């Protein structure tokens, strides 16, 4: 059997990659994908603990996290399209004004 | 066998996640993210969560990533441009801080590795891992104990659909 701590460490590494992408990247779509990566890392923690503790509710929480992630992706990409229409750019450094 | 599969797909996962950071073009990052999600689905199977693994492939690697790829193609996103006066505080402070945080997290996990022997009781405790995360067991829990959150979720999805349509609509 694989110890629980291996799964937790893998999840921590994935989460750190997501945070690093969020900080380093300048493309708004890539930043959004980093957020999805962080959500995936948290899901892995949920499933690992659910398997460890034999508590099935962890799997149900993962289901809810996925629903929220799907809703977030739909709204977020719509916002990105809207931003691109008004600014003609995807670089977050160029999107620095609330009002044009 | 489990350990070998975990090591292989964990390595694939981390490699693809790092590739996501290194790549300059967003479409390459999106394809790396699909690899991450696929290998995570296999890790879920290793953990006995069959339902979650199937949903991971269908919803994440399928629906959400198709949405991403379509958006990238629709907006014709190219390589990242680096502006001359970009602040590099995030890279200068964030990345070392992140590495320190990761090291502390790993230290805590290794320090309290006795967690592996924890077993708490509860109403959903099953005997053995056989058929632990299969759709029947998950559905039993989802439609009995979590029925109200499930129904609230449907309202959330409805609002998200309306919001996406309104936001992405072309102005007249």
Comma- or semicolon-separated keywords:
heterodimer, A: 100 residues, mainly alpha, Helix Hairpins, 78% helix, B: 172 residues, Four Helix Bundle (Hemerythrin (Met), subunit A)
3D architecture notes:
The complex is a heterodimer of chains A (100) and B (172). With 100 residues, chain A is mainly alpha-helical. Chain A has a single domain (4-87), classed as Helix Hairpins. Helices cover 78% and strands 0% of the residues of chain A. Chain A has 3 helices and no strands. In chain A, helix 1 packs antiparallel against helix 2 and helix 2 (28-53) packs antiparallel against helix 3 (57-87). The model of chain A has no long low-confidence stretch (mean pLDDT 89). By secondary structure, chain B is an all-alpha fold. Among the domains of chain B are: 1-79, Four Helix Bundle (Hemerythrin (Met), subunit A) (Up-down Bundle), CATH 1.20.120; 134-172. Chain B has helices spanning 2-22, 26-46, 50-75, 89-111, 135-142, 147-168. The longest helix of chain B is centred in the middle third of the chain and has 26 residues, at 50-75. Chain B starts with a helix and ends with a helix. Mean pLDDT of chain B is 83; it is low at 118-128. The chains are: A mainly alpha (100), B mainly alpha (172). Chains A and B meet through helix 1, helix 2 and helix 3 of A and helix 1, helix 2, helix 3, helix 4 and helix 5 of B.
Helix percent of chain B reads over 70%
In terms of per-residue confidence, which ranges of chain A show pLDDT below 50 for 5 or more consecutive residues? Answer: none
Largest sheet of chain B: none
* Count of separate DSSP helical elements of chain A: 3
Mean pLDDT of chain A: 89
How many DSSP helices of chain B?
Answer: 6
**CATH structural architecture of chain A:** Orthogonal Bundle
State the name of the first-level CATH class of the domain at 1-79 in chain B.
Mainly Alpha
Distance between the termini of chain B: 60 Å
Residue windows where pLDDT falls under 50 for at least 5 positions of chain B = 118-128
């Amino acid at each position: 059997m694989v110890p629980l701590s291996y799964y937790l460490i893998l999840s921590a590494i994935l989460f750190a990659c997501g945070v690093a992408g969020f900080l380093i990247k300048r493309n708004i779509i890539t930043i959004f994908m980093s957020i999805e990566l962080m959500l995936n890392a948290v899901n892995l923690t949920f499933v690992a603990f659910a398997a460890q503790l034999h508590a099935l509710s962890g799997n149900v929480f993962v289901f809810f996290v996925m629903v929220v992630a799907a809703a977030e992706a739909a709204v977020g990409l719509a916002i990105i399209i809207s931003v691109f229409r008004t600014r003609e750019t995807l670089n977050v450094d160029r999107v620095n004004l609330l009002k044009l | 066998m489990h350990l070998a599969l975990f090591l292989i797909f964990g390595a694939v996962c981390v490699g693809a996640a790092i590739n996501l950071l290194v790549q300059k073009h967003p479409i390459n990052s999106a394809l790396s993210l699909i690899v991450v999600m696929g290998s995570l689905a296999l890790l879920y199977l290793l953990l006995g969560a069959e339902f979650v693994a199937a949903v991971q492939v269908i919803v994440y690697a399928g629906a959400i990533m198709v949405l991403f790829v379509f958006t990238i193609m629709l907006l014709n996103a190219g390589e990242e441009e680096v502006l001359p006066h970009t602040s590099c505080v995030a890279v200068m402070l964030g990345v070392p801080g992140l590495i320190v945080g990761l090291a502390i997290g790993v230290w805590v996990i290794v320090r309290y590795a006795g967690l592996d022997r924890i077993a708490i009781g509860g109403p959903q405790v099953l005997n053995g891992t056989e058929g632990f995360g299969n759709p029947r067991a998950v559905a039993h829990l989802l439609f009995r104990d979590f029925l109200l959150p499930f129904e609230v979720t449907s309202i959330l999805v409805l609002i998200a659909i309306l919001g996406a349509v309104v936001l992405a609509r072309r102005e007249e």
